[in-house]
Design goal:
By secondary structure, the chain is an alpha+beta fold. 31% of the residues lie in helices and 31% in strands. It has one domain: Metallo-beta-lactamase, Chain A. 42% of the residues are buried.
C-alpha cells in the first residue's frame, strides 16, 4: 500500500512539474528590440512585433501610434504604417536588416495619418498595399496617399507558411476601420477601433459613436481565442480591452 501511495505521489509530482515547465516555456516576455527618437519596436511574441511612432496633434499633443509586424519563414506583413515616411523608412530598414525578412504587404487599418502617413515609403520599396475599399475612397477624398489594392469585407494573405486576416466588422472610430488578426499566435491588431484600458473616447471627428459598441461586440465573438490585443494607441492587453471599449461607447 505504501509503495502504491509513493508511486502515485511521484506521478503527480512529475505531471505537475512538466505542466509548470510547459507553461513557463509558453510564456513570452515582451522586450524592446529597437528604439530611436521616432520609432520603437517591441517584440510581443515569438513572431510578432509592435511598432510605435509619434504624431503631433493639436488636441492631444505628441501621440504614440501603434502598428504591428507579423513574421513567418523570413516573410512579414505590416499592419499600419508609422506616422510619416521617415519613420516608415526606419521600420522597413529594420525589418530587412535585423529580421532579414521580406515585407509581403502593408495593410492600413483606416484612412487617418496614424495608419497610412508613411505609405509612400512602402510604395517606394515596391511593397504591395491592401486596404478596405472605403479606406481607399476616404484617402482619395482627403488627398492622402492611396493604398493600391482594395478588398471588400475581408482579406486573407499568406506570410510564410501562415496566414493573416483583415476584416471590416462595422463602423466605430471611422467608417472604414478594420481589424487585423494573426491566428498562429492569436494576436489581434485592433487599431483605433479598440481602446486601451482607462482610455478616453479620444478623437471622434470621423466616428460613428452609436455603432461602436456593437461593432466591437462582433469582433469579440469572431475571435474567442485571442490572447494579445494591440490597440491603435496605448498599452496592449487581452480581451479586457474589448469589454472596456464596448462599455465605453455603450448607449446608456
Amino acid at each position: 500500500m505504501k509503495f502504491i501511495i509513493n508511486t502515485l505521489l511521484i506521478i503527480v509530482f512529475t505531471v505537475t512539474s512538466l505542466n509548470c515547465i510547459a507553461q513557463k516555456q509558453g510564456t513570452f516576455k515582451p522586450k524592446e528590440v529597437y528604439r530611436s527618437k521616432d520609432l520603437i519596436v517591441t517584440q510581443i511574441a515569438a513572431n510578432t512585433f509592435e511598432h510605435t511612432s509619434f504624431l503631433q496633434t493639436n488636441d492631444f499633443g505628441n501621440v504614440p501610434c501603434n502598428g504591428l509586424v507579423v513574421r513567418n519563414s523570413n516573410e512579414t506583413i505590416v499592419f499600419d504604417t508609422p506616422t510619416n515616411d521617415k519613420s516608415a523608412e526606419e521600420l522597413i530598414k529594420w525589418i530587412k536588416e535585423k529580421l532579414h525578412c521580406k515585407i509581403n504587404a502593408i495593410i492600413p487599418t483606416h484612412f487617418h495619418d496614424d495608419c497610412l502617413g508613411g505609405l509612400k515609403a512602402f510604395h517606394d520599396h515596391d511593397i504591395p498595399s491592401y486596404a478596405y475599399f472605403k479606406t481607399i475612397e476616404l484617402a482619395k477624398a482627403n488627398n492622402f496617399m492611396v493604398p493600391k489594392n482594395g478588398f471588400r469585407d475581408s482579406i486573407i494573405l499568406k506570410v510564410g507558411n501562415e496566414k493573416i486576416s483583415a476584416k471590416f466588422f462595422g463602423e466605430g472610430h471611422t467608417k472604414d476601420n478594420v481589424v487585423g488578426y494573426f491566428p498562429s499566435e492569436n494576436i489581434m491588431f485592433g487599431g483605433c477601433l479598440i481602446k486601451e484600458l482607462d482610455a478616453t473616447k479620444g478623437y471622434l471627428g470621423d466616428a460613428n459613436v452609436s455603432a461602436w459598441s456593437s461593432t466591437v461586440d462582433k469582433v469579440k465573438k469572431e475571435y474567442p481565442n485571442v490572447k494579445i490585443i494591440v490597440p491603435g494607441h496605448g498599452a496592449r492587453g487581452n480581451k479586457k480591452l474589448l469589454d472596456y471599449t464596448i462599455n465605453l461607447f455603450k448607449i446608456k
